[in-house]
């Protein structure tokens, strides 16, 4: 089986994928009609998918597919990356920031004043809602529940993690109105763009905080800044932005109610992801359906 590698990082990926799937011949260039599958990420050399009519799979190396889905040259099945290393990274990022916000740690880091009148409540009393209950949203919700947070998820279908309350699309108001900490793990699609607009942000309880490692397009930036300026919302931890890198004079950088992290919430880990790629290449060889196929009509 011939597999075209059209992504950045050949030096680290090639040995890992070859070790996990010795049957695959991994190539950086190949005669187009001889290619059985393409491994792809938008940070690579680019790819005109239409030139590879015999390819039965395009395997993405990233969880987000918003930069691939609109490509009209892509007619082959597209699989996105779901792998345990990426998942663990996102769990650590979200639980770390959720605990920091919950415990009000920044106050103690900055205050320099002896004020012991306000022990934070236990996590059982802290309501967290995770928007998006896919691979990452469910993993984060499970980890927060294991720390005893009062956690719920919201997704289009209402599917969520076993044992964790799950709201569906029309129940967004209930999902938001309980969220003292809101974590956004939705994909970027036409339906999710600006989903957190002024009206929806106003549904959050006063003093709520937001963690957004999903996509920058999920939030109406002007509405968020306005809610932070009026102190209606307490804090926003933002990892993703409409323009990345975040421009030097963007108001988010200097806003006291905002923590900017530079799109580092998590990333695909080669060691664990190579095993997922290998499994999908074998499925293609056996004529089976690959894992984690993207529904391009939905955009994720
Ligand atoms: P999944 O595709 O597994 O899950 C997507 C979730 O979003 C599903 O629960 C889906 O609901 C829900 N959803 C999508 N559209 C809507 C909608 N219109 N209304 C309500 N719910 C909706 O994605 P992952 O969990 O793997 O990843 C989520 C996102 O995280 C990625 O798309 C990417 O943008 C981001 N990400 C960010 C990283 C970072 O470092 N900052 C790293 C990796 C990913 P349903 O299933 O019911 O349709």
TrEMBL record:
The keyword Oxidoreductase applies. Residues 102-265 form the D-isomer specific 2-hydroxyacid dehydrogenase NAD-binding domain. Keywords: NAD, Oxidoreductase, Pyruvate. One of its GO terms (molecular function) is oxidoreductase activity. InterPro entries: D-isomer_DH_NAD-bd, NAD(P)-bd_dom_sf. This is Glyoxylate/hydroxypyruvate reductase A. The lineage of its organism: Bacteria, Pseudomonadati, Pseudomonadota, Alphaproteobacteria, Rhodobacterales.
């Amino acid at each position: 089986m011939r597999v075209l590698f059209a992504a950045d990082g050949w030096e680290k990926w090639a040995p890992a994928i070859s070790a996990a799937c010795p049957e695959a011949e991994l190539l950086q260039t190949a005669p187009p009609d001889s290619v059985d599958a393409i491994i792809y990420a938008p940070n690579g050399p680019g790819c005109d998918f239409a030139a590879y009519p015999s390819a039965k799979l395009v395997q993405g190396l990233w969880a987000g597919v918003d930069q691939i889905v609109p490509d009209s040259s892509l007619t082959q099945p597209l699989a996105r990356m779901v792998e345990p290393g990426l998942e663990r990274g996102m769990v650590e990022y979200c639980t770390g920031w959720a605990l920091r916000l919950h415990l009000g740690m920044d106050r103690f880091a900055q205050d320099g004043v002896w004020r012991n009148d306000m022990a934070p409540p236990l996590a059982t009393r802290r309501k967290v809602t995770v928007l998006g209950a896919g691979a990452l949203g469910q993993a984060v919700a499970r980890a927060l529940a294991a720390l005893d947070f009062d956690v719920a998820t919201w997704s289009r279908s209402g599917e969520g993690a076993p044992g964790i309350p799950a709201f569906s699309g029309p129940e967004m108001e209930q999902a938001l109105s309980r969220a003292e900490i809101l974590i956004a793990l939705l994909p970027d699609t036409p339906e999710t763009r600006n989903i957190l607009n002024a009206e929806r942000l106003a549904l959050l309880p006063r003093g709520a905080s937001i963690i957004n490692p999903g996509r920058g397009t999920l939030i109406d930036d002007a509405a968020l800044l306005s809610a932070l300026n009026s102190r209606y919302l307490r804090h926003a931890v933002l990892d993703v932005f409409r323009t990345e890198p975040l421009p030097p004079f963007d108001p988010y950088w200097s806003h006291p109610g905002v923590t900017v992290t530079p799109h580092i919430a998590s990333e695909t880990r080669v060691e664990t992801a190579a095993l997922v790629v290998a499994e999908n290449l074998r499925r293609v060889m056996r004529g089976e359906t690959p894992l984690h196929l993207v529904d391009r009509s939905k955009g994720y």
